[in-house]
Specification:
17 helices; 21% strand; 8-stranded parallel barrel; 530 residues; binds zinc ion; alpha/beta
Length: 530
């Protein structure tokens, strides 16, 4: 039997401390549901004592049903020299009404004498009494030993004493925090190993990524005997962030043989990551291990050739294990086999030598010559292939569009756009204002199309890049790359023109067509017609 590791996510608490992350109550509930669905065991949902937004959130949580996860309120031990039942924060924690509670306390003598300025004895009492009181009130308590490793290096007997009183108070987990993120993996391993022999309560680990070692330190702690791992699903958090829970889960489960999630849940990891990034308005890096868009993307011709023969030649795991997918990047180097691979998704009988392959290759070369670059924009290539194979009927056509720029520019209304679309003979005309011409055009186009295709409401533009292509003597062209998401998938489209608006429109149209095509394929699959 594989040993179970308890997963503890802090996206809504430590994660929300990250620069430029800000959650509404609705966002928090959406993230909570995503984490619950993913199979996380504990979700730290905020600090009810610290701000009114969290109090409102906990109030609303009473009606939210969790399928698997236990909700956990976070707060500090009682203040020094007052009764635990009189402490305002402790009262707020009880009122939050969660089954689990995480309480942090000071472990480092430096923080006790110089920062909170109390005595070492009083600190021990604060920890033990707070935990006991919460346990008596029916809570399951995780004790977060703040600055544990720094404290251990300063005075290891006192750091151990802190854990012992927390154990005596009745904590269910003693979690060692590398709060400043400066500890090294072998130190984490040795310390956890030695503590394991001196304590009976399961140990947990909470790492920050200031040295780029958050994941490594968490894995070392588990290897040495820790059984609860805390992290933030996508690793964002204060300063350099928290240990990335998605990476930790993947490594523990796929490489170290632990049981973090039921096997069938593992393939939801990528989808959960995209969803959380989307709600958090966080631009997830393509290079995110395991779940990033580029995590299994291949470009060099020789690599691609090898991967197509045997994927394990350049992949450390099968991408589908974590719900990700292999991507073969388009480029002149990539060559024919890449294209054939994509073409075979539509017609498995096509080969490198097929006449259709030559036609598609010529079309790509022609477009590359015009300034297109398909690397990373394989959704545009997929559409192109369908068009060349006559396997494509456009979902809409644009009959007309107009853009009006205005000065002086007021907020969000630098321009307005009018678009007329045609869907199966029916026309729809719509106008919108936007922050600049492309934004206005995007809005007007969607408004018109949503009449026919309500699912387009799910699509959001996440990135927009413009490059000027230096063509020497000829007029300079621009290449526009648009990255879109529907909360489930991220895709990129490309458009080229001497006119930036036109280049943007080509990419926008492709982006919306791709979404419609994907949804249609999904429906056909559901009814087993594909
Ligand atoms: Zn932390």
């Amino acid at each position: 039997m594989k040993e179970k590791i308890i997963l503890f996510d802090s996206t809504l608490r430590d994660g929300s401390q990250a620069e430029s992350i800000s959650y509404s109550v609705g966002d928090k509930i959406a993230i909570l549901k995503a984490l619950d669905k993913c199979g996380i065991d504990y979700i730290e949902s905020g600090n009810p004592g610290s701000n009114p937004k969290d109090i409102e959130f906990f109030e609303q949580l009473k009606d939210v049903e969790m399928k698997h996860a236990k909700l956990c309120a976070f707060g500090s031990t009682r203040k020094s020299n007052i009764g635990v039942e009189d402490d305002r924060n402790i009262k707020a924690i009880l009122k939050a009404n969660t089954p689990a509670v995480a309480i942090f306390g000071k472990t480092s003598v430096f923080h006790i004498t110089d920062i909170i300025r109390t005595t070492l004895d009083e600190n021990l009492k604060m920890i033990e009494e707070t935990i006991r009181y919460l346990v008596e009130n029916g809570k399951e308590v995780t004790f977060d030993a703040e600055h544990f490793f720094d404290g251990y290096f300063l005075d290891k007997d006192y750091a151990l004493e802190v854990l012992k009183v927390a154990e005596k108070g009745g904590a269910s987990y003693l979690t060692l925090c590398d709060t400043n993120g400066g500890t090294l993996p072998f130190d984490v391993y040795n310390i956890v190993k030695s503590l394991k022999k001196q304590l009976n309560t399961p140990l947990g680990i909470h790492c920050h990524d200031d040295s780029g070692l958050g994941v490594a330190n968490s894995l070392m702690a588990v290897d040495a005997g820790a059984r609860q791992v805390q992290g933030v699903f996508l690793g964002f958090g204060e300063r350099c962030g928290n240990a990335n829970l998605a990476s930790i889960i993947s490594n523990l489960q796929l490489k170290m043989g632990y049981d973090c999630l039921p096997e069938e849940y593992m393939k939801n990891l990528t989808g959960t990551a995209i969803k959380i990034a989307e709600i958090s308005n966080y631009n997830m890096s393509g290079r995110e291990p395991f779940v990033g868009k580029s995590a299994f993307a291949h470009k060099g011709g020789m690599h691609i050739d090898a991967v197509l023969k045997a994927p394990e030649s350049f992949e450390h795991i099968k991408p589908e294990l974590v719900g990700n997918e292999r991507r073969i990047l388009m480029s002149e180097v990539a060559g024919r086999s890449t294209i054939v691979n994509l073409m075979q998704e539509i017609n498995p009988n096509l080969t490198k030598k097929s006449e259709e392959t030559t036609r598609v290759m010529n079309r790509i070369k022609d477009l590359e010559h015009q300034g297109y670059q398909f690397e990373g924009a394989e959704s545009s290539v997929r559409l192109l292939i369908r068009k060349e194979l006559n396997k494509y009927k456009p979902f809409f056509t644009i009959e007309d569009y107009k853009i009006i720029g205005s000065q002086p520019k007021t907020e969000n209304t630098g321009a307005s756009a009018m678009v007329k679309v045609n869907v199966d003979g029916a026309s729809e005309i719509n106008a919108a204002e936007g922050d600049g011409p492309v934004n206005a055009l995007d809005k007007a186009l969607r408004k018109a199309l949503e009449v026919f295709y309500p699912k387009l409401k799910e699509v959001r533009l996440v990135d927009f890049k413009v490059r000027v292509i230096d063509k020497g003597a000829t007029a300079s062209k621009v290449r526009v790359l648009i990255e879109s998401t529907d909360g489930k998938e991220i895709w990129t489209n490309v458009g080229v023109s001497t006119d930036i608006i036109e280049a943007s429109l080509i990419a926008l149209v492709d982006s919306l067509e791709f979404k419609l095509l994907r949804d249609m394929e999904e429906t056909l699959k559901t009814y087993k017609l594909l």
